[in-house]
Amino acid sequence: MTTCTPFAMPETPAEPALTSQLDIAGELTALLRDTTTELRPDDQLEALTLAVAADLPVLLWGEPGIGKTAALTQLAASLDLPLTTVIASVHEPSDFSGLPIVGDDPAEQGVPMAPPDWAVRLVRAGRGLLFLDELSTAPPAVQAALLRLVLERRIGALQLPPGVRIVAAANPRSSAAGGWELSPPLANRFVHLQWTHDHEVVVRGLGGTWPRATMPRLDPGKLTQAVDFARRAVCGLLAVRPKLVHQLPGNEARRGGAWPSPRSWDMTLNLIAFATAAGSSRDVLSLLIRGTVGDGPGLELLASLDRMDLPDPETLLADPATAELPERGDLRQATLDGVVAAVRNRPDKPRWDAAWALLVRALETGAPDLVVVPATTLAALRQEDWDVPASIEQLAGVVSLSRRADRSADRATARIAVAAQAGR
Amino acid sequence: MTTGAPGALDLDKLFAARLHAARARPYLATALFALHTVESRRVPTMGVDQYWRCYVSPAFVDATPVEELAGVWVHEVSHLLRDHHGRGDRATRVLGLTGPGDRLRMNIAADCEINDDVFGDGLVRPEGAVEPRALGLDEGELMEDYVRQFRLGPYTQRFAWLDCGSGADGLEREWDLGPDGAHGLSAQEQDAVRFRVAQGITGRPGNSSRGWKRWAEEAFHPPQPWRELLGAAVRSAASGSGTGEDYSYGRPSRRSAGLPGVVLPSLRRRPPRVSVVIDTSGSVSDAELGSALLEVAAISSAVGGRRDLISVLPCDAAARIVHPLCLGEGIPLVGGGGTDLRTGFARALRTSPRPDVIVVLTDGQTRWPREQPPCRTVVGLFPRHHRRASWDEDDPDYVPDSPPEWARTVTIG
């Protein structure tokens, strides 16, 4: 008599099968699960970790099936928080706002809103990572109840303790069938992170090696400095660009995304401080900033951070001989422009000479065409009683380079004119 | 600075050319200076990689006049600013272009996008630069459009030497230093440079060409496909409260039987009624209307609307008969002359039962109801930049308004 198995049994087994087909299947499954991990920096996971650490509501935007849940599992493990996943689309609104339970005398005792079991357990544990998945496929009433949970941290009569962190995930508008769309006030409360898959990671992972991200660690020694840096960065930009403080999204294409307001700038300030204290890269910071105040204002902030990184003109002028100029051409020219502007603001002979020495140094260590504009401006600052410094001899090459470019421009103009006549 | 050794890279010539380029196109100076030059004997001319390194052949610099080199500089930096590397990768996936010849096509298409307006006004066209006209194509289109329009053949034979590097088409070259090599720009740094260039162009738009202005406007806000935007607008209008599938306490849930004392809401379905008001005045083409109408029908059925709940109302100066969509494709879109969508709104709201959503497809040369109608409104707008505002005999001063604030407006096409 044969027992029923999911696999076809040979009619006459050559020998009595010691291991059943299910055991063999189990062995095969174990082999398939036997994968290794490798250390690999992951900017999006690092950005997510920092936002969760800063206790800001995060909304992950990504197509279904690209590993959002896997990322959250890894995040929970690294933060040492128990993970509670709630699939929003299979719940009813009352699961989040509480079930009204009619007692014996509702008029006297009121109608309590009973919370679901997972919320009770989460509150009892006092800490945990709550992942609200598939927000966008839930009916509107469920979404409304969930947003109250995310923003007020309340489920029915229960208040979530501060140790609980919340992350939500939604599908992009184009693939959201259920009509999910964030109104601007709601969108403004989230850090929006676009979740995409890395082709190389997926191929390597299916081949048996999944990535393991290094989690950012906050450095206790850097906290004061990080707060100071974040305040300088945000206030420095908003002081000169008051328009950026509040900008409602104007057109249809930008609806539902991040936009700047005092609230989201405050979130940005927090995130810059966290990223600085963790020593995160500019790319991670870029994801966080652009996900909080939007692309345009975010890029302006990043550009002003770049300018904050440039060497201070006064330090350079104080000691031109050992000055370290940025390697990248555009940053180097911005630095030299800054030096010339500093001399213009407070012109005197030693500063003017020091600036020439800096230009010579720039010429010795990099491309000559970057020096042309600062040298021309600096020469124009000369006052009558100032002697030309000896170092200027070394800049003769710059002058000839500039003339060569002039002649080239003349030839170009002439050739274009000839071509235009021939064309006619 | 000049190294006299034969075959060495003439840096002075190269940098004089870059200075010329930066003077001719001041708004590109940041990007030009951000490039890191790498001498390479394997690259045929000049090429860029996706980390903003610029590989230069010494022989090519020797053989090319300074003023042409200036043009090549601007050409190469344009590949990077316009993200031809990333777009090439995406286009490859979407169009399934995997052969080696396809990358050359991508490079030629990218060159066409750049070259039609990058030269002139102080910059000479380098010898052998590809132009759309040389391939018999129209000017002013994008790489993705060009790449579909030609095949490699006798026309493109003379461009076969052309190679702008992996920055132009996304395919790694043997000479690339790769992500770990020195002096590469990270994605964030590249965005920062693009942003500064775009800011320079939008700040002083007078100096730049039309192509660059368009690029600057769209660099960080690429126009979204109207189908998705219209879909999102109709979907959110059609599934708002009162319509679609949602919970309601109006009738107890079936779960209630097992839970005495607990009040549960139940899931109710009320499919939305959608009225499509179509502007059939002479200014909207049948092809545009057809594609937009199909789109609305597809979206409505995706949100649970039945075909019999969608009605179509052609409207010019007067609203005609309401057609249910289930009659098929035979809706007569007759009309012509001026438009007054107010009659269309009134007619749509008079139908019983009243629609939950009104979708208006128009070119906007019309008057709008003064007050917000008692249902959600989505406007699909066909842009008309070149056209003069329509003229009305009775009211010669009349200028058509833009769609009102209470409607969600999506620009189509």
Automatic annotation (TrEMBL), chain A:
A GO MF term: ATP binding
Occurrences of domain AAA+ ATPase (ranges): 54-206
Superkingdom to which the source organism belongs: Bacteria
Record-given protein name: AAA domain-containing protein
Organism field: Streptomyces finlayi
TrEMBL record, chain B:
UniProt cross-references to InterPro entries, sorted A to Z: Put_metallopeptidase_dom, VWA-like_dom, vWFA_dom_sf
Region spans: Disordered: 239-262
UniProt domain VWA-like: residue ranges: 274-379
Residues covered by the Putative metallopeptidase domain: 14-268
SUPFAM superfamilies recorded: vWA-like (SSF53300)
Pfam families: DUF2201 (PF09967), DUF2201_N (PF13203)
Protein known as: Metal-dependent peptidase
Organism this protein belongs to: Streptomyces finlayi
Highest classification ranks of the organism: Bacteria, Bacillati, Actinomycetota, Actinomycetes, Kitasatosporales
